Structures
1.
Amino acid sequence: MIGLLVVTAVPAEAEAVRAGVSDPTVTVVPVGVGPAVAGAATARLLALAEAAGRPYRGVVSAGVAGGFAGPVEVGGTVLGTHAVAADLGAESPDGFIPVDELGMPAELLGAGRSIAADPHLLAALGTALPAATVGPVLTVSTVTGTVAGTTELRRRHPDAVAEAMEGYGVAVAAAQATVPFVELRTVSNPVGPRDRDAWRLREALAALTKAAAALG
Ligand SMILES: O=C(O)c1cccc(C(=O)CC[C@H]2O[C@@H](n3cnc4c(=O)[nH]cnc43)[C@H](O)[C@@H]2O)c1
């Protein structure tokens, strides 16, 4: 049976996903924090499965996230239409320049700075999770932690609904393996001035367990 691969950053997220999934063909693996380690680990898992003659039918980047106040509240569920490499580019005196506006040859940019979710996976999860907020999910290497950072990110990505740290890396791995990708997040904290004590991890992990039932 061809299964689904669900990758999370940390073991607590993986446990929350496993608690909600009943389909034995769904494999859940905590692959680490940040786009580089998550992307590399996912690429390896996809390559090993392909080499064994049992390629995955899809990859889901799942876990908790910071939510942009307005579109989504703490405890809410988010489905990513796109995984956006929000801090990949260059600073300049005139502001941030996204990587695909730096004049580099397109073939060096892979799938680009924004990778769309697979429309079939997205539609299936959207049907199973009608209350989910659907929109672009930013991938950042640095958690946003100031008012200025939040304002700038919202200015650059007015449609974004959440930020997390792995989606784009996982999406690159999926794109290179031509495996469908989608991102599923639940919100542990608002994006804004850093207040780690205010993160509602228990609430977000419980929401993740509920949402994970949609994966099978
Ligand atoms: O300490 C714990 O028990 C625990 C349980 C579950 C998750 C964690 C994490 O530290 C998750 C890190 C993970 O969360 C994403 N995340 C969450 N909020 C944000 C944010 O505001 N900005 C960016 N990323 C966020 C991210 O994907 C991290 O990898 C701890």
2.
Amino acid sequence: MSIVFTNRYATHPDDVKHYDTDKLRQHFLVDNLMQPDVLVLNYTHYERLIVGSAVPVKGAVVLETVDALKAEYFLERRELGVINIGGAGVVEVDGTPYALNFREALYVGKGARDVRFVSTDAANPAKFYLNSTPAHHQYPTRHITMADCNVLNMGALETSNKRDIYQLMIKGVVDTCQLQMGLTVLHPGSVWNTMPAHQHDRRMEAYFYFGLSEGQQVCHFMGEPQQTRHIFVGNDQAVVSPPWSIHSGCGTGSYTFIWGMAGENHDYNDMDKFPASALR
Ligand SMILES: O=C[C@H](O)[C@@H](O)CC(=O)C(=O)O
Ligand SMILES: [Zn+2]
């Protein structure tokens, strides 16, 4: 197994106004996820959230620490959220195995020393999406299934945004220091997510898109509401959303995405909404 590590600094909205397509992609698109037998870690300087992945095929992928953390072990001062979007797999936390099926999640609290990812069947490997943020308190490690989580039924077919938001790591379901994560599944025929769009200057967010058919893309909208930009996103790619940015997408086909947030509070509903007519 090998490690791919990238470092991404934060941006100012006045600066981003002047970015062309390539520069927007360089700063916000994450297109190196889900590489077999690689621990992928993209360290963002937005709330120091790490966007990563582990796809174990030949053996286990181990959550090794990296020099940038200057930590004895990866979760010495961090918490971790894991969601499996592939075949059945197991996450071992200090020797305790947690079986994670498709769309199931694991919260791993600060202090876990040995975390490793394994696929149950190498021919249909698990694909673990990872978000990790700094933590200052140790909360218990928890396995969360789709049945355990809170579900929001949003949108309508008439507005092409009928979708179900599965809040896997959310206040009331699992205790975390700052991490919130969930899955949003679009109904057939619906292509818009997060419309009306919103901003939450208290928290950053990352959107990871998957389940797209061959050749399909999601056009992800970002920027300040009055100064939007777009990024075309392919399957298994993510966009890092700064606190000042809206984050919304429209697919050329159906898709699912994982959202992960970190920042000031745990109030999922404290977003500032912008109707389509307010966007520029
Ligand atoms: O702050 C919350 C996040 O942006 C997402 O949960 C929104 C979302 O999945 C959707 O509306 O489709
Ligand atoms: Zn949001």
3.
Amino acid sequence: MRLRSDKRHQADDVPEGAPAATPGLAVELRGVRRQYGRGAGAVHALAGVDLALPRGTFTAVMGPSGSGKSTFLQCAAGLDRPTSGSVYLGGTEITGMGENELTELRRSRIGFVFQAFNLLPSLTVEQNVLLPMRLAGERQDRRRADAVLAQVGLADKARRRPGELSGGQQQRVAVARALVTNPDVIFADEPTGALDTGTAAEILGLLRHAVDHPPSSPLRTGSRHAHGATVVMVTHDPAAAAWADRVLFLSDGAFADQLEHGSAEQIAARMTTLSARTSRPGAMAGAAA
Ligand SMILES: Nc1ncnc2c1ncn2[C@@H]1O[C@H](COP(=O)(O)OP(=O)(O)OP(=O)(O)O)[C@@H](O)[C@H]1O
């Protein structure tokens, strides 16, 4: 738990003159740019993104192919470094952190759910769920692991290996693993991309439930646990995005539009409009800059 006691980046203890994180936000991006290459061939994958996501919210990010969704997720989750701008997670500025500190932060304060489940096949379901605690050097709390497994409906599968489970069940394990540390934010990258419609709805229902319901017996104190989970999900699927509170639409590396509590049909219509007016080459830089 070294990270939590390290106040260097905390909002309430920033050096004088340094910009502080906005209280109450799980994720904040300020002027985030990510450029690949230089000169005439440069690409502005993120062209100056500002974002403020309150704790306990479910946000979907959509956009045409090449609009910057993966780059956004990677920069917001500390997996990639912006060319410029600032990223704050749970009140902690992560831009400028060293690799070790970032790795520690990802393990203890971010949950990930990927399209391909990314479970370790040689570990049991329970051991997979305990993995973030193990990697973070924390006590492996089996009661907590069993509680989140029960939350995702897999109380009876704790001793199984991932290969013995269906795809939907494996993704439930991944959701349990993302929830187990009560992270500041869960980043989900096409979490239902490999699932059929019914199974996808079950997984999205679990994420929705985690957002709407604070942990009943939080093992850690602190205001961030008075809320349900915060989920940021990249998806191509309007039906998946419709589970979110808000859909943000990326176009040419910038947020171009948003929709609150939209239906799948409304979201699909917005995407069609966006795709029609998007021209990724417009993000080629040399041009603009
Ligand atoms: N490593 C890289 N080097 C150069 N250009 C890159 C790199 N990664 C991404 N890009 C470019 O940055 C832009 C945004 O890419 P990104 O992968 O973030 O888009 P995306 O919205 O996730 O696309 P998709 O939906 O097809 O996965 C694209 O023009 C892409 O070609």
4.
Amino acid sequence: MITTKDLTKVYRSRGRDVLALDSVDLHVQEGEVFGVVGTSGAGKSTLIRCVNLLERPTSGTVTVDGVELTALSGSEQRAGRELREARRRIGMVFQHFNLLSSRTVQQNVELPLEIIGLDRHDRRRKAAELLDLVGLADKAGSYPGQLSGGQKQRVGIARALAGDPKVLLSDEATSALDPETTRSILQLLRDLNQQLGLTVLLITHEMDVIKSVCDSAALMRGGRVVESGRLTDLLADGHSRIARDLFPLGDFGSGQADRTVLEITFQGDAPAQPFVSQLARTYQIDINILGAAVETIAGRLVGRMRVELPGSHTDNVVPIGYLRQQGLQVDVLDLSNGVAA
Ligand SMILES: Nc1ncnc2c1ncn2[C@@H]1O[C@H](COP(=O)(O)OP(=O)(O)OP(=O)(O)O)[C@@H](O)[C@H]1O
């Protein structure tokens, strides 16, 4: 549904070039919620602004729903007719809501419909439907200043849906909200994704957002996508940095040379059996549990545990094989850099 190829953006700032996007290849499938995560300055905002050509990339292509936007003329306010048409099928939600304070909630939602020339009656009907969809039917006559942050973001979402978009872009939509409101807005995005078949591309600096709402994710660093994929696949990959960040499990053990640290992951229907005590009993070994967490990720129950066994990797080949036989994913950590060996 959204594909970027070799997407590059260079800003010229005070006489020097800033490489904000460096050959970004991204593929967001139709109907999924895709999260881009990364620290400040990684290039997330630039990426999302290039996806709907609010920012014209320096090179590379952006294709949304089969239309190559980068081949259409104009950008920002001077977009040509075809680009404006294509943009109508892409909704955008902003961190600070971007509502007009002098207009009522209803009038804010009607704004994009006014711009496309819909008549008054149809505008009213459509805006009322959208406000109902986001749970704000009773606030139609209120002004943004009379709403909470979460309600303002619901208005922002209703407005973004006015053009019946197939794709919704969310630029840190929950960063200005408290944790409970964040949860309710993420749930709303998830519901809209499922009810309307909406494809959602969101950017965030919070791993919790990825964990609670996304099907897939990409990690950005220094303008590059360093990892991307479906969360279920990433969780099955012992080298995945995203998976590691989804489960911060504490330290890496005693640091002694004759110890083996394992990371054990179980997903979905994998046995929720007491494998640690079974292992200890079967092989008569003392197992040190270093950390454990169970989360619901992409709608599936996923657990991860880090344990330390006495002896080297070679000494533990048989117990590791036993765990794998139980349907568990087992990665042996390389203690020098904390990733799977
Ligand atoms: N208009 C601009 N002019 C010059 N440099 C820019 C401009 N916009 C962004 N940059 C630079 O591009 C890089 C990527 O910025 P961007 O805002 O995309 O990152 P980000 O991951 O969204 O960060 P944040 O989470 O802080 O918004 C940064 O080095 C930033 O300073």
